[in-house]
Every structure is written in C-alpha cells, then in structure tokens.
Specification:
Elements lengths: L5 E2 L3 E4 L6 H8 L5 H4 L7 H10 L6 E6 L5 E8 L12 E8 L8 H16 L4 E7 L3 H9 L3 E11 L4 E11 H10 L2
Helix pairs in contact: 1-3
C-alpha cells in the first residue's frame, strides 16, 4: 500500500517495505529492544518480514529512517481506533514506537514523535494522543516527557501476551491544546 512520507530535519518516516526485513532484524533481534516494549527479540529475518507484513501494516505505521541512507532503524505508529489499547474514540489515537539500540540517546525518537504528533493533530484532526510504557522502561518515559505527554495513571497487572506475563503500564496523554501550547512556546 503506497503511503505518505513524513520528514523532519534528520528523518524520513515512510511505509514499511518487505526489503526492510534485514534492517528490522538487525535491531529487533537485540534483547534490549523488544522485551522492554512487550515483544520477544526476533529470531530471524523471516520473523521480521512477518511483522512488517502483519503487524506494522496499519494505516499510520511508519519505518523511522535516517535521511542519509533511508534504512529502517525503528518503528513509530499512530494506532487508530480499533488498533489501539488506550484510545477508543474516533478523534483519539495511540502512539507506539521502538528504536534500534545504536540510535538511543540521539534525540531521534522525540524528533520522530513530534512529527507524528503534528500529523495526528493537524492532518488527522485528533483531539488526544495516548501513549504508554511498562514499568522500568525509563527511555520511553523520558521520550514521552520530552515531547509533552502528561502522566495520567497506571494500569496494573496488564497482560503482555507475547512475553507471557503481566506488567504495569504507565499511561500518558497529550491533547491538541497542549501540543499547540508547546509548539507555540518553541519547546
């Protein structure tokens, strides 16, 4: 399915392609990447291809790529009603993301997330975007704080089916009004 391309200063956010499977596997096979976000490390390139074709196939699912080489280094998605765990209204969605470990700490996820929030509020007309992270995922917590999400509460003992366990989920939200205020203030 051809899709839109979103760009930032350093990044291209584009639809996943079958040819991205090796790049995805390179980062999704790292045990420090998937388990903290609720899925086991990928075992082979075929598993990564399956995920591209069957999981990261939502209308607003994007590969995060550096402009320098257009290779996938992570994933970001606005999960619309029906695909989201936290958003149930047509004018709300949920932001989900992960990034390959070599790219942590470089401001890539906040940069990609800010563009997806712009897209959610300006292009898609969303009023709220929800986001969550499991206890212990401090990198996701910090990324959410940097882009303006406000902590709303905690859901305890939530099933994490792919990891065969239960975890606590910290839930955050950003409203269109909050996003406009942050954008105007230049933060």
């Amino acid at each position: 399915m051809p899709g839109k391309i979103l760009e930032t200063e350093r990044l291209i956010l584009r639809r996943w392609e079958a040819g991205d499977a090796e790049d995805m596997f390179r980062y999704a096979s790292d045990p420090d990447v998937g388990p903290i976000t609720g899925w086991p490390p990928h075992k082979n390139v075929e598993e990564s291809l399956f995920v591209i074709e069957n999981v990261l196939n939502g209308e607003e699912a994007y590969a995060i790529c550096l402009k320098t080489d257009n290779k996938a280094i992570g994933a970001i998605e606005l999960r619309l009603k029906g695909r989201a765990d936290l958003a149930n209204a047509d004018d709300e969605c949920e932001l989900g993301f992960w990034l390959g470990k070599p790219f942590w700490g470089r401001g890539i996820m906040p940069e990609a997330s800010r563009e997806l929030l712009r897209h959610a509020f300006e292009d898609l007309g969303m009023k709220k975007v929800w986001c969550g992270y499991y206890d212990g995922n401090s990198k996701s917590m910090r990324a959410q704080e940097k882009i303006g999400f406000a902590f709303q509460g905690k859901k305890e003992n939530v099933d994490v089916p792919m990891m065969h366990e239960k975890r606590n989920v910290n839930v955050s939200v950003i409203t269109r009004e909050d996003w406009k205020r942050i954008k105007t203030s230049g933060n």
